[in-house]
Write a structure and sequence with these properties.
alpha/beta; Rossmann fold; Pantoate--beta-alanine Ligase, Chain: A,domain 2; 2 domains; six-stranded parallel β-sheet; three-stranded antiparallel β-sheet; 12 helices; 9 strands; globular; binds pantoate
Length: 303
Amino acid sequence: MCGAIATSYMKRKKMEIINSVKELKAKVSALRSDNKTIGLVPTMGALHAGHASLVKRSVRENHATIVSVFVNPTQFNDKNDLEAYPRTLFADCNLLQRLGADFVFAPSVEEIYPEPDTRTFSYPPTDTVMEGAFRPGHFNGVCQIVSKLFMFVEPDRAYFGEKDFQQIAVIRAMVADYTSQGATWAKRLEICPCPIVREESGLALSSRNTLLSINEKAIAPNIYRVLKESVDFSKTHTVEETQQMVVNQLNGIEGLEVQYYNIVNAITLENVTSWDDADHIQGCITVFCGATPIRLIDNINYK
Ligand code: PAF
């Protein structure tokens, strides 16, 4: 169970920074022979309070917590986006030490990909709709890195933020696939989704928020405001009317442009046409903000 509480294994031990897969595996095997549970928090760094909430939870629920900090090139389909991605390893390590993480795994690209990863992952429709449609290859890259991390660490629990709602669905599909192939690490692993952490303005925390200008920061909170309003609106309107309401309201704000707003079955990510189509329904949005523009994602639960 994600909710179980473990007594922190190495509370008073200094956090260790690991750069090689060999050393990571050695640490993991020492923990395992000591019967310690391991929580993994995969990140691309530029850590914020959203990541901190994942790490805190892992520290609470496992004997040892490993946080990976790796800007994974294979999940970027835009070279400029990869280059612009903020890299703040020193500050990240300071934060992780304070949060009680035990190990930071911060490898180089060559360490993770000594040769090109040619594996392909395909879990339609979870990885073909929304982000999958607009960022071809993105989820393949996510599966490449996350599966490697899972195989290196064989964690008991792995923590992901619900801001990347679709990513969690794809990772769940990948783990189910490995489980059906008999992978022992996949059978043991529990995926733990954690709620979105927001700025006071309502803007979902994201490493990309640091790229927003003052002006863009002022308009970006409209995304969550409109999503929240749409939940009330949905009680007296159809799925299509609710979808249109969100798109029209946001596109009516100068500096915002909706790339997609899909109201989907929260498990399969297929579009729903009626509120009775699924037990759990989520609205998933991507909005371009400002002139650059910065691509912001968010989501909201309808039921
Ligand atoms: O969500 C992220 O930051 C990344 O997609 C992840 C899961 C760390 C894989 O690189």
